[in-house]
Amino acid sequence: MSAKSLNGKTAIVTGGARGIGRAYALRLAQLGADVAVVDQNVRSYEEYDAENKLVGGTPAEEALRKFGRKAESYTCDVTEEDSVKSTFDQIAAEFGSIDIVVCNAGGGSGTPATTLASSVDPSDFTAVVERNLYGTYFTCRAAVPHMRDNGWGRIITVSSQAGRRADRGGGYAHYGAAKAGIIMYTKYLAQELGPAGITVNCVAPGYIATGRLSVMFESMGSESLTDEVALRRFGTPEDCADVLQFLATDQSSYVTGTVIPIDGGTTEF
Question: For domain 10-262, which architecture applies?
């Protein structure tokens, strides 16, 4: 595949300021796309010493421009529908189109002990569902009209292994439920948009060693977390970007409504 196979395309990555989202944005720029990074805090990497060190204190848009691509960052909370729509309309006007969208923004809250299915606080449950499921819905709702106009599009939603199987201890039920909802929403959206030339697929990462999470993994003991992973290692943001590359290009023109788990560098189709 050409290193510039996405020339002329505009990609949006939500939650792209750091971690896996940033790796997605970098890969898309490397493939030739112009990239808009949308994040609630476009300098969120500064919140974590390990993450800030990993990126050298460089904002995402600056790192993306090193590939010779147009790149901008936009502050937006994906739980606010009007904000998402106005941001996406602004991106379409400034970049000329919206061709690829990665619905990466999300995240959980609390601890396993405080997020059991029967007792998780309603406000936490609501916040996590809004951040993950509603954020994905609002993102797709804002992007689809632009893709219909183009007659082409690639939407990649981001679930989690937590959305495919429940933790044995029962913790993070709100997060798992929200991520499971993303999987089914993806399947419905794919059925709707396939005839319009727009593919919709979902990736479901397991433990991914971002700069922020690597420190936590070390403190928890990596062997206990990886002993059921085929390669006996954590996945990396680059592993996730490899799968994104397949889904965002014409290589995946025959794939839609698919959920691809990513765990320790292995993928499952």
Answer: 3-Layer(aba) Sandwich (3.40)
Looking at residue 101, what DSSP letter applies?
Answer: E
List the beta bridge partners of residue 38: 14, 74
**Both tokens of residue 261?**
């788990």
Residue 184: exposure state from Cβ atoms within 10 A (0-12, 13-18, ≥19): middle
**What pLDDT, on the 0 to 100 scale, is given for residue 215?**
55
Six-digit token string for 13: 């990555």
Q: Which residue out of 137, 175, 185, 207 is catalytically annotated? A: 175
* Residues 260, 269: Cα–Cα separation, whole Å: 6
Active site residue 175: yes
Determine the pLDDT at residue 168: 79
CB of 175 closer than 8 Å to CB of 205: no
Ranges under pLDDT 50 in the chain = 1-2, 269
